[in-house]
TrEMBL record:
The protein's name in its UniProt record: Argininosuccinate synthase
Origin organism lineage: Bacteria, Bacillati, Actinomycetota, Actinomycetes, Micrococcales
Subunit structure: Homotetramer.
Taxonomic superkingdom: Bacteria
Single GO molecular function: argininosuccinate synthase activity
Length: 399
């Protein structure tokens, strides 16, 4: 029996040509695997059939939208995950899920390797291969574009010579990746970080400069998981889809960042993540109400490390699992409601309430009835500043 390789298949030119290219270069039969993570676009059945028409011995399509939302987006939301404090890990979150299904399909079908369409310059090559190594170390990884010199001009010629069912059109100047959590755009004129983005770049968000009435929305959380929008019970994928519409219609979620890639270079990226930015904002405000001060402060450092690990392709690492355990424990009391106003590209929290709240009105108020005993403050300050006072006698700091 001929050896097999399972290819992460998008339906586009490079991965379609990659089917025959892989067969020619390795002698392996190619199984195409397409994963639906809410990227929209073409009908997945057409994608499946195209892979067969391009020479795949089998073509598998998996609807992973619910899994993506529940098992990947929800943990990211609990972690308030923003790489470099800005990027909500749009592409990085989908890669371990795709890699898991690549490995699972390879084992089920007796393949000895997997393949992907990444170049040698990006992060995704690392994310796919590191994830596969972590869950199925016996499999090898092949990257036709990187390892087998499959350039775009060669791909076009190959498609023409083999009459592949690929409609050729003028190449977009941008590289685009998207799923239900957001959309990433790079290359073209964006490679000059001085150039401002133009409106044509965006599809998940409407212009924040358009005149429109604000949208008020209430998000209900249960132990860190969003479970309702405006009182309506929804699944995680339904929450994300609805918030994409509500926040996107108000221009919320546009991000312009110079990003430090894992491979050592800087890259200018444009992102859209309306649900991502709005839900993270709401979740952080509910944590302000329900987490103890020291837990909240410590968690911020854990959030940054969690985001770094996921960005760097280490979703299945031991450290990531340990951080998950800590983060999940912090969410035990993160239940309640957050009210937000969506308008002009901003998601502004205007109210929050929770039965698990640590906010004590009688302690916080400055009005009559205040239960805070201010007489304790003087002694507290004396003890708090005592180490600084002692060291100042020795160090004699200059003023």
């Amino acid at each position: 029996m001929t050896e097999r390789v399972v290819l992460a298949y998008s339906g586009g030119l490079d991965t379609s040509v990659g089917i025959g290219w892989l067969k020619d270069a390795t002698g392996k039969d190619v199984v195409a695997l397409a994963i639906d993570v809410g990227q929209a676009g073409e009908d997945m059945e057409k994608v499946r059939q195209r892979a067969l028409d391009c020479g795949a011995v089998e073509s598998v399509v998996i609807d992973a939208r619910e899994e993506f939302a529940s098992d990947y987006i929800v943990p990211a939301l609990k972690a308030n995950a923003l790489y470099q404090k800005r990027y909500p890990l749009v592409s990085a979150l989908s890669r371990p899920l795709i890699a898991k299904h690549l490995a699972k399909t390879a084992r089920e079908l007796g393949a000895d390797s997997i393949a992907h369409g990444c170049t040698g310059k990006g992060n995704d090559q690392v994310r796919f291969e590191a994830a596969v190594a972590a869950v199925a170390p016996e499999l090898t990884s092949i990257a036709p574009v990187r390892d087998l010199a499959l350039t775009r001009d060669k791909a076009i010629v190959y498609a023409q010579e083999h009459n592949l069912p690929i409609e050729q059109s003028k190449k977009s100047p941008y590289s685009i990746d998207q799923n239900v959590w957001g959309r990433a755009v790079e290359t073209g004129f964006l490679e000059d970080p001085w150039n401002p983005p133009i409106e044509d770049l965006y599809t998940y968000t409407k212009s924040p400069d358009e005149a429109r009435e604000p949208t008020e929305v209430t998000v209900t959380f249960d132990q860190g998981v969003p479970v309702k929008i405006n009182g309506e019970a929804l699944s995680p994928i339904q929450v994300v889809e609805l918030m994409n519409t509500l926040a996107g219609d108000q221009g919320v979620g546009r991000i312009d960042v110079v990003e430090d890639r894992l491979v050592g270079i800087k890259s200018r990226e444009i992102y859209e993540s309306p649900a991502g930015l709005a839900l993270i904002e709401a979740h952080e405000h509910l944590e302000d109400l329900t987490l103890e001060r020291d837990v909240a402060r410590f968690k911020r450092g854990i959030e940054a490390e969690w985001s770094n690990l996921v960005y760097d392709g280490l979703w299945f690492s031991g450290l990531k699992r340990s951080l998950d355990a800590f983060i999940n424990h912090t969410q035990e009391h993160v239940s309640g409601e957050v009210r937000m106003t969506l308008h002009g590209g901003r998601a502004v929290v205007t109210g929050r309430r929770s039965e698990e709240s640590l906010y004590d009105y009688s302690l916080a108020t400055y009005d009559t009835g205040d239960t805070f005993d201010q007489s304790h403050a003087k002694g507290f300050i004396e003890l708090w500043s005592l180490p600084s006072k002692i060291s100042a006698r020795r160090d004699k700091p200059e003023l």
